[in-house]
Amino acid sequence: MSKMGQCGITSSKTVLVFLNLIFWAAAGILCYVGAYVFITYDDYDHFFEDVYTLIPAVVIMGVGALLFIIGLIGCCATIRESHCGLAIFVLILLIVFITEGVVVALGYIYRAKVEDEVDNSIQKVYSEYNGTYPDAASRAIDYVQRQLRCCGIHNYSDWEDTQWFKQTKNNSVPISCCKSGVSNCTGSMSRPSDLYAEGCKVLVVKKLQEIMMYVITAALGFSAIQLLGMLCAFVVLCRRTGDPAYEPLIPGGTYA
After folding, report:
1. Which stretches of the chain score pLDDT less than 50?
2. Percentage helix, strand, coil, to 5, in the chain?
3. Rounded to the nearest 5°, which phi and psi values hold at 178?
């Protein structure tokens, strides 16, 4: 084997060991992304009723757990020069690579559905507002209006069409519509400068699409790393057994 070939194999093995360490880090990051989507979805679940939207998050967490196992198998197989171990490593990586492709596809599908889902639910959520903390819909609206700094569906005047506004008869919107930093704000519509001007619908859609984009980006980013891992493993696997140019990374390595 030429010096260039020997250098290529040695480099591939070194990169492969390094990539397996990255897989362990990736496992933690992917699990974090999945957990973040779950937690954030819980804050906005009244505005997005399709629970199947969580499928990409569930899959990405499963992939994260599998990547930890892949890193362990790949690291051991590379250091011990195990032909069988590397073959299993490549096979599992290929399965995960395909799975992440499915996650990306599902992410784009559900991301496109966000606006329609919010359109169908947001009017209902606002109509159910009663201003009491124990009420789930009321908590959800107050949370969203404070976090996203918005008021009403399209603007604060949308509150005039709600049952809560008609029953209170005080010409005011919820305190959660008050701009942060404005003191003594009562939500009175006679002082619109105290209220958030932007409606919540656009911002809720943007936030939910942003959440789904985290999953898509994570899946695409780590797919590229896995592709590099598969290529390096193939280089090592395709070396000729017993070739003197092929040197184990540690003494006592096996060519099994």
Report:
1. 1-8, 240-256
2. 75, 0, 25
3. -70, 135
Using alpha carbons, select from 19, 84, 82 the residue that is nearest to residue 231. Answer: 19
Sequence-ordered list of residues with C-beta below 8 angstroms from that of 217, at least 6 positions apart, any chain: none
DSSP bridge partners of 195: 178
Q: pTM for this one?
A: 0.74
Residue 13 · residue 83 · CB < 8 Å: no
With CA atoms as reference, report the closest residue to 175 among 215, 114, 129, 122.
129
Residue appearing with tokens 């980013």: 221
Q: Please give the structure tokens belonging to residue 42.
A: 């819980």
55-114 residue pLDDT tens: 788 888 888 888 788 777 777 776 676 677 777 878 888 888 888 888 888 888 888 888
**CA angle at residue 95 from 218 to 34, to 5 degrees?**
30
